[in-house]
Amino acid sequence: GLEQPDGQGTGTLSACFVMGLEDHMDGIMTTAKEMAMVQKFGGGTGFSLSEIRPKGAGISTTHGKACGPVAVLRHLSSVSKLVTQGGKRDGANMAVMDVHHPDILEFIDCKQTEGDIHNFNISVGASDAFIQAVEDGADHPLRTQSDQTADSTRVETGRLDARAVFSKIVYGAWRNGEPGMIFLDEVNRNSQVAHLGRITATNPCGEQPLLPYESCNLGSINLGKFFVADAPETADWESRVDWDGFDQT
Q1: What pLDDT was estimated at residue 184?
Q2: Among 178, 203, 214, 216, which one carries the catalytic annotation?
């Protein structure tokens, strides 16, 4: 961590993370704890809900039914709210769900009530295939959470009218800014770390798509501080910049 101007020493430069989120109780609770610790020190967190099994899916170990990704989102939101009460400001979060997830319609509408899911932005992870289906006026498939990334093994659970889904997204964005959209196929086409895995989420405000447990550097450099104000008017631009000071910074 970097020492803040007030001397508290609780700031972090690389402050916004995408966290891992695995589809079992231990994974969900571990992620909630990790999120709380990041936010305690002023950082923000992003999550992909795409691997969480749909609501009502079976759980072999307990013979029960899964609560679904939106319930997990609400749990993470409640933890973030607890951290906020003990800290100085709201924590910031992003939740992304793949548009092919069976619970996508519930996700799109989960923030209709303002303040219901506290401290979270939400975004739909759109695929090339979904956008093409919107253009064509076609259906698009919903797939089980365990097969989101392997084309040869995806299991289809249903189909939705792509334009109806897109209209629902657009209406929500018009109504209160939720949800946003992230074009995951395009993100991964341009990924510099594609050999390490597929990116499925971003930091809280969407500036940086990241793999799980990557962080983005939110530090900034004020370039105006390196302008040489007393340089002769005839000086070229090279001599009007304090390059040594900039290099040191």
Answers
A1: 96
A2: 203
Would you tell me the crossing angle of helices 69-86 and 25-40 to the nearest 10 degrees?
A: 30
Find the catalytic residue in 3, 114, 207, 217. 207
Indicate the angle between helix axes 128-136 and 162-176, nearest 10 degrees: 100
Residues of the chain with pLDDT under 70: 1-12, 85-89, 145-154
Q: Is 205 a catalytic residue?
A: yes
Q: What is the pLDDT of residue 8?
A: 58
Using alpha carbons, select from 205, 215, 212, 187 the residue that is nearest to residue 93: 205
- Other CB atoms within 10 Å distance of the CB of residue 213: 10
| pTM confidence score | 0.82
CA 20 remoteness from chain centre: 11
User: Cβ atoms within 10 A of the Cβ of 135, count?
Assistant: 11
Pairwise CA distance, residues 113 & 92, whole Å: 18
Measured over the CA atoms of residue 110, residue 114, residue 117 and residue 122, the dihedral's sign is positive
* Six token digits for residue 116: 């219901």
Known catalytic residue: 186?
no
Distance CA 245, CA 144 (A): 54
Q: Which two tokens stand for residue 9?
A: 């020493």
The yes-or-no answer on residue 216 being catalytic is: no
